[in-house]
Amino acid sequence: MRLLRFHTRTSLTTSLRCAEFRHPATFSPMIVAIDGPAGAGKSTVARAVAQTLSFTYLDTGAMYRCVALARMRDADCDLDSLKIELDDAITLNGEDVSDAIRTPEVTELASQVAAEASVRAAMATRQAALLASGDWVAEGRDIGTVIAPHAELKIFLTADPQERARRRAEQTGRDLSEILAEQQDRDRRDGERSLSPLVAAGDAVQLDTTTLSADEVIRQIAELAAAAINGGGPQ
Ligand code: DC
Q: Domain with 178 in it: what CATH number?
């Protein structure tokens, strides 16, 4: 699997510069886990935090979406042989599916396949193998609770359901009330499933993004990461 590695270093604050001076020989690898429901801002924020820290970004939702797309095309597809690459483009068995995995149909099916034990086990194995070495910002629903409970920093992003749906409608141009209804269904399914339901880890920092700009959320998380890098942990 190929992944998106950010090399550009951008400074937000003086404290973040400390993060830039981490040296692989001196510091052990670090994982920043960002979990939360759809529309809380995880993708925008996780991507930017990874870029700021020069960590690798892992979008685990994209992996479930790839499984959903593969299932739509072939109900009997073999999970273990699916080649999923997360780079600038997301590819499934070599095909660029960056747009195809974002359709409402795939979004709905992804939430369904994510409740299946065999799918979760297969994705968990891949994710754990990736996170075993290197520095990561990983986003999903169960990163801080199941996949990387040892993560040095765990963030649980939330936002008011209306605001989450409004953001999705703005991104997609789709009808707000339709999005809200679908979101309620997915929230319920993701939160109530028996396997790895969406819950905040006990030691996660909870951030309500309803009234915050993306830049403000990115700044707060990057500062928490800088504190964790410097041995302070979340304040
Ligand atoms: O974050 P997203 O909307 O791209 O995720 C797609 C679906 O995958 C979503 O319904 C929840 C599920 N998912 C999950 O169960 N566990 C994860 N770690 C990531 C996503």
A: 3.40.50.300
Q: What is the mean pLDDT of the chain?
A: 87
Examine residue 68 and state whether it is found in any structural domain, yes or no. Answer: yes
Provide the domain count of the chain.
1
- Written as six digits, the tokens of 231 are 């041995």
- Cα-trace Rg, the chain: 17
φ and ψ at 118, to 5 degrees? -65, -35
- Rounded to the nearest angstrom, the distance between the alpha carbon of 119 and the centre of ligand 1 is 12
- pLDDT tens-digit series, residues 16-29: 433 444 545 556 78
Per-residue model confidence as pLDDT tens digits over 95-142: 999 999 999 999 999 999 999 999 999 999 999 999 999 999 999 999
Does 140 sit in the ligand 1 pocket, CB within 6 Å? yes
Domain assignment present for 78: yes
Determine, yes or no, domain membership for 234. no
**C-alpha 231 to ligand 1 mean position (Å):** 31
- Name the residue at shortest CA distance from atom 4 of ligand 1: 61
Query: CA triplet 139, 230, 27: central angle to 5 degrees?
Result: 80
Domain coverage including residue 41: 2-229
Cα 128 from Cα 143, distance rounded (Å): 9
For residue 27, tell me if it sits in a domain. yes
